[in-house]
């Protein structure tokens, strides 16, 4: 059951903080989730304290945490401090799409539409290559930019056309982002109201799908030494992994198949034998049970361990070869 009240969110934040103490290797994603629940509980001061705590520990993605902190600060009256953080993030020009999106949406939420548009445009130009695989996070940047341009009454450009092509929901982006939709809600015409209710239902369905999958659809990857150790300890799993090379090929193939069916937010999680055995013990299950493998992958993803697929242009391949993805498992990508 999802938390509904401020007390529920506070209790969930406290649970996540306790879990972070038990699993220090997953501390960062757990504290980020706790901060989000504190914000929903209205305890923005405590959420800011958690962001400060994360930043002081040298996090993996400081720009993301700073972006979340800026959004939180602005919501409870610290606009000048939030603006300073936002300016710093924009100057740093991170390669993380989520940081850009949070900054742009924060500006948009406070009617800074020109600044939001500039932020979205800078991020898209930096991170999106129309001739390359476009990640779930980058698609979200394109959709956000499309929305702000509709609010500014700007004509469609090539990026907007790309956003339209990537959008798969039943209601087109132009309708979802139409400012006049707000007027329809105040109409006394039952036909207009019914049309708007239908559009809202479609939009709500998209949001529900996103909420039901708060982490990537993740495929489990075993590095060669870990796979050797795993199969030596649990020979029954050899039916799942004939060779390490075949294992790597199957991962890439599965991810491409998922992408081709329209599944977004794909990722890869890397397993280790000690971690897998600890997970099996926590589930009171045998590590030799192949049915446990997808559950283990899902748990790693939920703890923030997933790496987005496909890798960004020029980034190393997910397999750990050290080669660029396009020269390794991405060499035959269309």
Annotation, overall tally of beta strands: 3
**Order of secondary-structure elements:** HHHHHHHHHHHHEHHEHHE
CATH topology of the largest domain: Serine Threonine Protein Phosphatase 5, Tetratricopeptide repeat
How much of the sequence lies in strands comes to under 5%
Number of helices: 16
What proportion of the residues is helical, as a percent range?
55-70%
- How far the N terminus sits from the C terminus, by CA atoms, comes to 41 Å
CATH architectural category of the largest domain: Alpha Horseshoe
Describe the biggest sheet? 3 strands, mixed
**CATH top-level class of the largest domain:** Mainly Alpha
Mean pLDDT over all positions: 85
Provide the low-confidence segments as ranges.
207-214
Output the CATH homologous superfamily of the largest domain: Tetratricopeptide repeat domain
Provide the spatial order of strands within the biggest beta sheet.
Answer: 1-2-3
SS-based class = mainly alpha
- Number of domains as seen in the coordinates: 3
Outline type: globular
How is this structure best described in words?
- The structure is a single chain.
- The chain has 334 residues and is mainly α.
- It has three domains: 6-181, Serine Threonine Protein Phosphatase 5, Tetratricopeptide repeat, CATH 1.25.40; 182-212; 217-327, no CATH class.
- The chain contains 16 helices and three strands.
- The protein has helices at 6-22, 27-40, 44-56, 62-75, 79-92, 97-109, 113-127, 136-151, 158-166, 173-176, 181-184, 190-211, 224-233, 244-260, 273-282, 292-302; strands at residues 217-221, 266-270, 307-308.
- Strands 1-2-3 form a three-stranded mixed beta sheet, sandwiched between helices.
- Helix 1 packs antiparallel against helix 2, helix 2 (27-40) runs antiparallel to helix 3 and helix 3 runs antiparallel to helix 4 (62-75).
- The radius of gyration is 22 Å and the shape is globular.
């Amino acid at each position: 059951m999802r938390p509904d009240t401020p007390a529920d969110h506070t209790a969930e934040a406290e649970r996540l903080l306790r879990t972070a103490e038990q699993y220090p290797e997953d501390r960062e994603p757990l504290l980020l989730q706790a901060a989000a629940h504190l914000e929903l509980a209205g305890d923005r001061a405590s959420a800011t304290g958690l962001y400060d705590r994360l930043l002081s520990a040298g996090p993996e993605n400081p720009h993301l945490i700073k972006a979340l902190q800026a959004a939180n600060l602005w919501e409870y009256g610290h606009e000048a401090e939030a603006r300073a953080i936002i300016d710093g993030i924009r100057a740093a020009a991170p390669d993380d799409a989520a940081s850009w999106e949070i900054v742009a949406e924060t500006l948009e939420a406070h009617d800074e539409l020109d600044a939001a548009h500039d932020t979205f445009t800078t991020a898209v130009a930096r991170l999106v290559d129309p001739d390359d695989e476009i990640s779930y996070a980058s698609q979200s940047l394109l959709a956000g930019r499309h929305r702000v341009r509709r609010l500014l009454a700007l004509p469609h450009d090539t990026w907007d056309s790309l956003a339209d092509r990537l959008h798969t929901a039943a209601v087109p982006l132009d309708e979802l982002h139409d400012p006049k939709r707000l007027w329809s809600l105040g109409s006394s015409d039952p036909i207009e109201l019914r049309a708007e209710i239908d559009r809202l239902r479609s939009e709500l369905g998209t949001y529900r799908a996103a909420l039901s999958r708060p982490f990537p659809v993740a495929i489990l990857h075993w590095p060669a030494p870990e796979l050797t150790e795993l199969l030596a300890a649990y020979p029954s799993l050899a039916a799942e992994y004939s060779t390490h090379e075949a294992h790597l090929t199957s991962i890439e193939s599965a991810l491409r198949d998922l992408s081709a069916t329209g599944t977004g937010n794909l990722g890869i999680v890397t397993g280790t034998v000690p971690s897998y055995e600890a997970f099996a013990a926590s589930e009171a299950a045998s590590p030799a049970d192949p049915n446990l493998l997808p559950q283990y992958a899902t748990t790693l993803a939920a703890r923030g361990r997933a790496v987005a697929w496909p890798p960004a242009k020029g980034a190393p391949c997910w397999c750990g070869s050290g080669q660029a993805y396009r020269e390794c498992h991405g060499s035959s990508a269309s």
